[in-house]
Amino acid sequence: MTGKHATDEHRSIAESGLIFRCLVGSGVHGISVAAQDDRDEMGVCIEPPEYVIGLRKFEQYEWHSAWERPGGLANRSGPGDLDVTVYSLRKYMRLALAGNPTILLPLFAPDDAIVTINGLGRELRDLARPVILSRQAGMRFAGYLEAQRRSLLSRDGKGRDVTRPELIEAYGFDTKFCAHMVRLGLQGVELLSTGRITLPVPEPWRTWLRELRVGEHTMTEALEAAEGFEAKLLRLTSTSPLASEADLSPLPFEPNHAAADRWLISAYQRSWAERGMFAGNGR
How far apart are CA 195 and CA 133, in angstroms? Predict the structure, then answer.
């Protein structure tokens, strides 16, 4: 049995139309802990015309090596496992323009984290600052951070929908979840301040987050750090007329949807023409 996004049809579309694939997750952040982490990769592909202007549907392909073990889809990924998600270019762009924190990471992945990339993949990454990024991303980072804090504090500090009981047993709370909460705030502030995300996480925070993951910092310390980053994010994205210009992000209020549309049309036409799928001129 396979997941709804893991059929042979979906795999074929993802592999044949792949323009970019890279390491994401704890690995690209530089905060992996060997005993806790799998390997996460994210990619982007261009699906055939019948999935865009026809009736067929493709949004993403997913594959988890844990599914190959007895138990199948019910298995949780663990150390040494590989998790792959490949999005259609249209879906990826929609999520990126909305400022989804996880989706934005491939735009800043360092060269040694890139598994494969072609010309269109490089063009996509070049669109980050002039087209994709906006203060909307800051709001999404703040929203994700707040949601993670609420989850962490629920159920008497054990967290909602706990998936790592072994960490709670060892340290009293889900240290991995907590580290990603702080990391979201740190990277959100950097993105809104500079228009980029440094990967892996720069020091001293990289070491601090790894220490948190192995119980060398308390949940209270993590919550205080996250609160400080959240306050900075709110200042950077403020819409108040009283906000100081010096406190505001240099990013535009909204992404450039028109430019994104133009590039998407061009990218799809060029890819289809190159693959013999479309009779247009590819421009």
Answer: 7
